[in-house]
Q: What sequence folds into this?
C-alpha cells in the first residue's frame, strides 16, 4: 500500500492571485478545510486554510481581493508513492493535521488527513487479522487467546472442534486447562482427542495481558509412530531371518537394486555382502537372471546351475502390488536342494564315477593330462611349462625331476599329448613297482617258450607297445644296473632282443623319464650309470616343490574345491582365514598330491560349508606348531649369540654393547633378564 491508495484526491486547486470568493466556493464545494494553491506552472505554492479564510474576513477582505497575502507557505508535503509504513510515522510526528500529496511534477493531487490515516490503519488491521486466521486454520492448530483473567477472547475453529464447543469466546480457559503457565507443554486427552498444548503469555501495549494456547492433535502422529515401530520390528525380524537363512536369498526393489541379501548367497558367489547392498542385481548376481520376473510377472524356477562345482537352483519370485511388479526375490537353494537333489546328487555322483572309469578305460596306455590341467600362478612354473611345451615338439629324451607329488606324471602326459606322437600310445612303466626279475621281460617282452613250462606264451613288452609313441619311465632312479645297461643300448641303437629271442626288434620310441631321487648322488655312489644319466639328461625339467610356490597353494585350493565339490558332491564355498593361514605356512612335503588329499578330507568334514582349521589333519597342525616353535627357538639362539658377541666386543660394557646391537640400554637389560 502506498500513499496514493489512501489519500483524499482533489480535482481543483487555487492559483496564486485567485480571489477570496473563489476560495470560499472551493472550500464549500469540496467540503475541505485546506485548499492547495499552485503557481502558474501548476506547482505547489502553499495552502489556503480555514484559518486563512477567517483572518482575511476579520481584516475586512472582500470577495474580489487576492488571497495571496493569506496563503500559508509552510506546508507539509508528501510524495504520492511514499510507502504506507513511512506515512504512518510521518503523520504521527507531524504538527499539522493535513499533508498535501504531490506527484513527481510537484503538482498537488490530494490531501492526506488524520482521518485517512485511521481508516488505512483499520483496513490494514483487518487484512492482518484475516491473514492470521487463515494461517491458523491451515496449520490445523487449535488456537485460543485469553485475557489476564483467563477469559477466552479469541478461538479458532480447530480449537472449538478439539474442545467440542460451538463457541469458546467468553468462557474461562481454566475450565479446560486448569494449570496454565508460560512455556507449558502438556499432553492432554479430551473428548476422544489426544493433543499437545503449548502455552505462552503475552504482554502487549496498553497493559493487555493473557495467554495464547496452541493445541496440536497428536493422534495421527502417534498412529504413524506405532506403524513405523511395527515396520521397524518386521524389518529387524526379516534381517535376522536373512542372517540365519540356510539358503541364498536376495531381494531387489523395482529398479533391480539389492535391498537384502543372505550371507550364504554371498559365500556361494564369493561376494562381500556390504558391497553387494544397493547395487544392481545384474551387476552382482548376473547368473540369477532375477529381473526376468519383471516381464513374466510370475514365479519361475531355473534349471540346475553350477558354480565352483556346486549345483544350485534359483526360484525367482516377483513381488506384486496393485498388478504391478514392485520388486523380486531370488531364492538360491544349494545346500540341501531337498530329497530330489539328494537323489540327483547320488545319480550324478554315479554318473561321474562311470565317466571317470570310462575315461580311464579310454585312456589306458594313452595320455590323460594336458597342459591346461597344470594349474599354476607361479612365474617359474609357467616358464617351465613353456619350456616343456617347446621340448615336447622335438624328439629328445626328457628327464623330469622334482619331489614326490609335484606333478611329474602330469608333465610327462602333457608332453606326450602335445607332441607329434599324441595319436600313438603313451606307455608308463613304474620302475620301482615291477619286481626286479620281471623288469626285463616287462620292457622287452619274451618269445614263446622263453620260460620253462608249456603255459608260457610269448609276451609283448613295453617298448613294443610304445612303438611310435612315448615310453614314460617313472622312478627311473630305482632301475637295476643290469637293466640300465640294456636300456642304454636300446636308447642308442633303437633296437633290442626279446627275452629268449634271437631276432632284433626295431622300435621308434621317445623316452620321458622321471625321478625324485638325486641322480648325481646315485651316479657318485655307483648305483646309476653315468652314461645313461647323460643320455637321459638331454633336456631336464626341474619342477619346484609346492612350498616354493606360495601363490600356487591358494590357486590349487580353489581348483580342488571346485573339482571335489563336483566329484564327491560337497558344497564347500571357501576356506576360512584361520585354515588358510595354516595351509599357507605348512611345508607340504607331499606337494600337490598331499594338498589334494588334505582338501578332499577337509571338504568331507567341513560342516559349515567352509573349511576351518579343525577340518585339517592333526599331523599337519602339529607340524606347523612345531616348526613355529623351532623358528622361535632359532631366532632366540641367534639373538643370544649376537648379544654375547657384542658384550665380548665391549668388554662387558652394557651401554657399548647396546650401541653395537643398535638397541636401547633398557631393552638390552630386558633381553639379558629373559635369557638368564
Ligand atoms: N600343477 C598342478 N595342477 C593340478 N594338479 C596337479 C598339479 N601338480 C600335481 N597335480 C596333481 O597332484 C597329483 C600328483 O601329481 P603327479 O602324480 O603328477 O606327481 P609326481 O611328481 O609324478 O609324483 P610321484 O613322484 O609321487 O609319482 C596328481 O593328482 C596330479 O594331478
A:
Amino acid at each position: 500500500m502506498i500513499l496514493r491508495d489512501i489519500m483524499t484526491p482533489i480535482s481543483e486547486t487555487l492559483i496564486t492571485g485567485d480571489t477570496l470568493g473563489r476560495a470560499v466556493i472551493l472550500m464549500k464545494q469540496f467540503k475541505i478545510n485546506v485548499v492547495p494553491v499552485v503557481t502558474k506552472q501548476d506547482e505547489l505554492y502553499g495552502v489556503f486554510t480555514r484559518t486563512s479564510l477567517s483572518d482575511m474576513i476579520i481584516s475586512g477582505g472582500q470577495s474580489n481581493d487576492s488571497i495571496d497575502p493569506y496563503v500559508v507557505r509552510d506546508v507539509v508535503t508528501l510524495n504520492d508513492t511514499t510507502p504506507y509504513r513511512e506515512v504512518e510515522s510521518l503523520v504521527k510526528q507531524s504538527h499539522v493535521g493535513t499533508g498535501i500529496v504531490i506527484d513527481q511534477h510537484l503538482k498537488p493531487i490530494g490531501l492526506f488527513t488524520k482521518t485517512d490515516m485511521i481508516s488505512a490503519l483499520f483496513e490494514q488491521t483487518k487484512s492482518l487479522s484475516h491473514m492470521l486466521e487463515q494461517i491458523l486454520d491451515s496449520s490445523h492448530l487449535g488456537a485460543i487467546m485469553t485475557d489476564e483473567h483467563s477469559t477466552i477472547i479469541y478461538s479458532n475453529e480447530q480449537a472449538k472442534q478439539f474442545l467440542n464447543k460451538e463457541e469458546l469466546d467468553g468462557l474461562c480457559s481454566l475450565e479446560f486447562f486448569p494449570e496454565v503457565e508460560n512455556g507449558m507443554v502438556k499432553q492432554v486427552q479430551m473428548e476422544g482427542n489426544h493433543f499437545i498444548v503449548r502455552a505462552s503469555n503475552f504482554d502487549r501495549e496498553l497493559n493487555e495481558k493473557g495467554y495464547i494456547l496452541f493445541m496440536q492433535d497428536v493422534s495421527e502422529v502417534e498412529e504413524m509412530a506405532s506403524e513405523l515401530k511395527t515396520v521397524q520390528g518386521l524389518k529387524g525380524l526379516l534381517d535376522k531371518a536373512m542372517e540365519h537363512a540356510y539358503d541364498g536369498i536376495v531381494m531387489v526393489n523395482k529398479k533391480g537394486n539389492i535391498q537384502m541379501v543372505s550371507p550364504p548367497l554371498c559365500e556361494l558367489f564369493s561376494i562381500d555382502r556390504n558391497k553387494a547392498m544397493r547395487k544392481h542385481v545384474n551387476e552382482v548376481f548376473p547368473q540369477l537372471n532375477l529381473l526376468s520376473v519383471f516381464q513374466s510377472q510370475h514365479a519361475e524356477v531355473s534349471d540346475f546351475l553350477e558354480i565352483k562345482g556346486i549345483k544350485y537352483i534359483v526360484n525367482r519370485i516377483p513381488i506384486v502390488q496393485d498388478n504391478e511388479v514392485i520388486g523380486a526375490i531370488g531364492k538360491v537353494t544349494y545346500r540341501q536342494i531337498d530329497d530330489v537333489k539328494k537323489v540327483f546328487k547320488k545319480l550324478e555322483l554315479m554318473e561321474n564315477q562311470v565317466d571317470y572309469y570310462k575315461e580311464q578305460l579310454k585312456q589306458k596306455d594313452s595320455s590323460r593330462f594336458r597342459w591346461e590341467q597344470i594349474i599354476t600362478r607361479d612365474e617359474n612354473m609357467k616358464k617351465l611349462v613353456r619350456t616343456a611345451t617347446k621340448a615336447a615338439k622335438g624328439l629328445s629324451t626328457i628327464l623330469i625331476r622334482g619331489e614326490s607329488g609335484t606333478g611329474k606324471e602330469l608333465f610327462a602326459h602333457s608332453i606326450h599329448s602335445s607332441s607329434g606322437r599324441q595319436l600313438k600310445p603313451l606307455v608308463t612303466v613304474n620302475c620301482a613297482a615291477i619286481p626286479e626279475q620281471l623288469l626285463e621281460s616287462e620292457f622287452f617282452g619274451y618269445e614263446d617258450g622263453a620260460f620253462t613250462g608249456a603255459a608260457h606264451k610269448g609276451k609283448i613288452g613295453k617298448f613294443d607297445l610304445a612303438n611310435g609313441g612315448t615310453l614314460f619311465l617313472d622312478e627311473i632312479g630305482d632301475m637295476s644296473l643290469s637293466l640300465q645297461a640294456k636300456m642304454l643300448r636300446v636308447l642308442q641303437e633303437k633296437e633290442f632282443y626279446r627275452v629268449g629271442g634271437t631276432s632284433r626288434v626295431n622300435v621308434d620310441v621317445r623316452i620321458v623319464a622321471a625321478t625324485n631321487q638325486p641322480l648325481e648322488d646315485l651316479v657318485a655312489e655307483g648305483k646309476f650309470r653315468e652314461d645313461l644319466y647323460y643320455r637321459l639328461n638331454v633336456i631336464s625339467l626341474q619342477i619346484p616343490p609346492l612350498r616354493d610356490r606360495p601363490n600356487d597353494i591358494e590357486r590349487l585350493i580353489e581348483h580342488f574345491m571346485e573339482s571335489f565339490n563336483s566329484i564327491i558332491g560337497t558344497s564347500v564355498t571357501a576356506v576360512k582365514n584361520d585354515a588358510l593361514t595354516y595351509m599357507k605356512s605348512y611345508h607340504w612335503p607331499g606337494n600337490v598330491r598331499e594338498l589334494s588329499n588334505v582338501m578332499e578330507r577337509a571338504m568331507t568334514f567341513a560342516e559349515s560349508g567352509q573349511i576351518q582349521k579343525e577340518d585339517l589333519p592333526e599331523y599337519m597342525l602339529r607340524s606347523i606348531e612345531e616348526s613355529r616353535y623351532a623358528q622361535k627357538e632359532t631366532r632366540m639362539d641367534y639373538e643370544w649369540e649376537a648379544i654375547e658377541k657384542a658384550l665380548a666386543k665391549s668388554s662387558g660394557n652394557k651401554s657399548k654393547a647396546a650401541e653395537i646391537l643398535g638397541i636401547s640400554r633398557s631393552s638390552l637389560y630386558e633381553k639379558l633378564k629373559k635369557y638368564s
